[in-house]
Amino acid sequence: MDHLESLRIFCTVVEVRSFTRAARVHGLSTPAISRSVSELETRLGVRLFQRSTRHISTTEVAEQFFKGCSRLLAELDALEAQARHGVSEPTGVLRVVAHTTATVNLLVPLIAGFKKEFPTVHLDLTLSERPVDLIEEGYDLGILLPFMLTSDQMITRPLTRIAMVVVTSPAYLKTHARPDTPEDLVRHEFVALSPSIQGLPLRFRRDDEETTVDLNVEISSNNASLRKEMVLNGFGLGALPRSLIEDELRDGRLVQLLENYELLDNDIELRLAYSNRKFMPAKVRAFVDYATAFYAAAPIDSP
After folding, report:
1. Which of 163, 200, 282, 302 is least enclosed by beta carbons within 10 angstroms?
2. Is residue 269 classed as helix, strand or coil in its secondary structure?
3. pTM of the model
4. Secondary structure (3-state) at 205
C-alpha cells in the first residue's frame, strides 16, 4: 500500500478509534486496515496501537506521531487544492511575449479587456521581434509572427492577417516620379522587410494579370516602426502594415501607392502560440479563449 495512504489510514484509525470504522471510511476491509497499520509499525519500528478483542488504544508514540501526520496531511491537502484551483480557476502570473509592432494597435485593449474579466491573473508582458523559444524562455504563450516560432511542437491559432500597403512620403514624391505601375518600382529605392522574414521580390495583381517586381533595396529591417520612420524621412518607398500607418495616411504624412493593385503574398499572419500541455493551466486557457474571440471581433485589417 502507498505510504501516504497508510498515513491517512493511521490518522483515521486514531480519530475513530476503530479498525472497522476506519475500514468503512476508506472503503476497505478491516483486515486491509489492520495490515496497513502493521506495515506502518514495521516501517517505523514502534507499536502505534494497543489491541484487544474489544477495543484499541493509541500508544504515547502514536499520539505524537498523529499530531505531526495530521499537520502534514492538512498542508498537503491545501497544496493539492491550490494546484487544482490553478487548473480550474484563472489565477497567478501569466507570462506573454508579443511581436512589438504587429500587436501595437490591439495589444493594449486586449490586455485591458482580459484584466477586467480575469482580475486575479497578473500579466508579465514582453515585446520582441526575434525568434522565441517559449518553453526555454519560460513564456506561457506568445502572440507572434510565424518566423518567431522556433519549434513545431507548439500549438498555434491564427488570430489575424495584417495587410501591407506600399507607401512613401510627399517629400520623396517631390523629387521622384510617382510610380503608376508595379514595373515603375524598379526605378525607386525601397525600404524592405528583412529577407529572412519575408522573401523578395513583390508580386502584384490587377484583374487577372500578375506582375513580379525585383526591388532596389537599400535598407532592410525586421522592425516595422523603424521602416516607417525611414520612409517618413524620405529614404524611399516601403511596404508597411496598414494598421501601423493609419494616422500617417489620414493626415497626409504618407501616401499610398498603386492603390489599384493587389499586393500578393505580403500580408503577415499573427498567431497565438502555446505549448502542448495535457493539463493546461486555467490562466492560459482563459487567455487563449479571450484573445481568439477578441481578434475575431476586431476590425479586419485590409488594404
Report:
1. 302
2. strand
3. 0.60
4. strand
